Amino acid sequence: MKTAARFVDLPPLRKCRPSPILRIVPAYRVELHSHCQGDPVDTYLSHSLFEHIDQAKKVGLDAIAVTWHQRVCANPEALAYARERNVLLIPGMETDVEHRHLVVLNLAEGDLPGESTWDQVRALRARKPEVLVIAPHPFYPHPCCLGQSMNANADCIDAVEWCKLHVHWLPGRINPNLQAERWAHRHGKPMIACSDAHTLATIGRNASTVEADELTAESIFAGIRAGRISFHRHSLRVAPLAYETTKALLSQPRHLGRWVKRRLANPGARA
Question: What is the pTM of this model?
Answer without folding.
Answer: 0.80
